[in-house]
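Q: What structure does this chain adopt?
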Amino acid sequence: MSLDQAVMIGDMMTTGFHGAEMANVGLGSTVAVFGIGPVGLMAVAGAHLLGAARILAVGSRPNAVTVAKEYGATEIIDYHNGDTVRQIMDLTDGAGVDAAITAGGGVETIGQAVEVLQPGGTLGNINAMEHAESIPIPLAAWGAGLGNKTIKGDVCPGGRARMEQLAALVKAGRIDPGRLITHRFTNFEDIEEALLLMHEKPKNLIKPAVILE
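A:
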């Protein structure tokens, strides 16, 4: 595999795929992915490989939308076009989704995901929310606490066995995580610029990488 592909496996790919795994994405399921940054895009790819029939990806940046479709997103939810929850419910004829993955947004995103989740469904959260004291969950959407909706949150798994599993998918051509890289640098001195890009988050950014060959 290329270095571009390899460098994305150890964090972006394993985290995004873990979101799909936590959400119990199954064959023929309908999945909502909130946030299509690099981790969310990998969640889209993970859901696709786990057999989701429909993947509703929430995001608006053109380059991220393009990659989301390449990774298996069947519909794009642009929050600039109206309420995210309403758009998802309209697209699913009011049924909602079997699984949801939150990979971006603020604390309100958890509540939105719970709202669109069907009873018996699972939400896998891979978004670190470090600057909030609490997470609001709409009580009605949770069935007054009895809605049979599961919320999971976890850090990504690592280790040699996990990396070998993901690398096998890349080597077999099932997924190209190198598509995440929009800004590629080749000098050690470029590390600061790459870090600043991650901080500033320009609209054309998905992921920067410094590849020293």
